[in-house]
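Reviewers asked in the last cycle whether our approach scales beyond single polypeptides. To address this, we selected a multi-component target totalling 642 residues and predicted its structure end to end. The input consisted of the following lines:
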Amino acid sequence: MGIVSNIKNNPGRLMSGNGKRSVGFHTPTTPVEKILALLSRYREASILVVAILLVIYFQIGSDGQFLTSQFLSVVLRDTGRLGLIAIAEVMLMITGEIDLSVSSVFSFAPYAMVLMANSLGVPLVLAAIISLVMGVLVGVLNGVVTVRFRVPSLITTVGTLFLFQGLVVWINDSQPIVAPIQEPFNAFFGQNLFQPNDSLLSWHSVTAFTPFLWTLAAVVIIALVLNRTTFGLHTIATGSNIVGAREIGVRTDRIKIYNFMLAGGLAAFAGIINTVQFSSADPQAGSPFLTLQAIAAAVIGGTSLLGGSGTVVGALIGAFVVATLNNGLVMVGAQATVSDIYLGAAILGAMILNVQVNRLRARRRI
Amino acid sequence: MLHNTISPPLSNDAPVVLEMSHVSKSFGAVTALVDVSVKLRKGEVLALVGDNGAGKSTLIKVLSGYHKPDAGTITSKGRPVRFQSPRDARAEGIETVYQDLALIGDLSIYHNMFIGREYHKRVLGMRMLDNDRMRGMAEEYLSTLGINIPNVNSTVDRLSGGQRQCVAVARSIYSSPSVLILDEPLAALGVRESAHVLGLVQKLRREREVSIILIVHNYSQIFEVCDRINFLHSGEIVLDAATSDITEEELTRTVKSGLGRLLRPEERAVPMAATP
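The resulting structure, written as structure tokens, was:
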């Protein structure tokens, strides 16, 4: 469990080496305290419970249709897309910043990739790398404007959101373009080759989940970076106490810019996977709603909006919850529009729970 | 500028380890330091006194690389240096305990101890944090210092003010700096903890010849541990005296008078109660 969060309080270590009770720390005794302690120790715990309850609910409500590979591939595809953007937001939110422009990069990068491949004959792999770099460069722009010109990132990224969304719509008169198919690139990055009569253990079955598997890989890598590298340590330091971090020699400006670059790159990657999946580059593929859902996933997953703490595993589970609500409600016969009501209520509920658990923790020193 | 400066005892001819000459620093319209020169000798404990807003914290933040001076130079061990960030100053052997302690509340105690100079290990060719090593070293070091910290895994935001101050002090002396700057290190400490930190300061000077700059508001503590006093008033050093050349009462009256200079003998005769 070590890598999943940056919470350092291991219950086994509450006792000091010589067996004496640690001074100033209350060891939980009653069941309520134990649950609270668990919830506050592993921020992922509460969202995991919610996710499991939702799966059970939809599995029963849909007469066993939820846990089928066909339906799960749709839920996990959406989870993957949201999850990639959510973990990008987690890293930025830990530094105390936010990026609202990711949806425009999500549209812009794959559109540029397909244009390069179609009109210039650039191989898709190369075009994908170039558009990833473009996404990273948008991150540089966001970071530099935020850090050097001291524009709050909320405003900076609203600016770049419109800027790049406007650009991608303007390039080709808002026309979606058909993406070329070049194997094995497409099979690797999202094209679903699964047919209903294919074996579940086949390569085709794996392709049904490629977007999710890429996201899973990204989550593992980012979780390691966050909790096991100097960069991750300095990212937490930057958001937790920016003045103190500077005083002790953390290059907070650079850390922020790097995290903006990471966000741009991840958004571009998510966009590329999405385009490969649908074999079409839509200039309006990413709406600001996508960003907001990703932020919601990060927040209900246990990431603080105030900076200093966050968990990418929680964000992935959060993305799963959002994707499950979006698809599951339709499946059990609700109107597509109803899912937003549940999502809204879930965000409010999760936030209230989060804040209250932290308050309890502070008061009782769980 | 008034010249009531008392020369420090000349017998002290230990080499100067850190020197700041003619440094000025303003923040927009606010002038924080005016042509300030400070010398710190090897193994010396220098007290920096002055009212709130006199420029003490700015002065030490220039020395620690946090602020860049507008004018003037800093010389470390005889070489001119230009600190771009506190990282450079730390690499030069200058450690600072800031007034706000510069601890990261969301990180564990041992990560706080090693932030900026983390230990790494290679895992599959990747440079990963060596948490086990840092945890072990922090545990060992804190217990050698006799600092009562329950558990190095807990986050700093769960510590008391005194414990935090101890962690900050421990971090700064861990790397055996040649210069230690302490900005009100005793502010949140109880009587016993203050004595402990002051004892630590004296021990460092005795055993490792560390040079120390100390900002303290309690003047009796200054006379307990310091060799020399620099009095900062409105961004200028107006008094540079050895503690042996001035009494606690004189210092108190001087600072209290708000005149920014050492009082003349006839002024000193005025009973303290008469000064506002």
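The first helix of chain A runs from residue 31 to 41. We regard this as preliminary and will revisit it once experimental data from Aim 1 are available.
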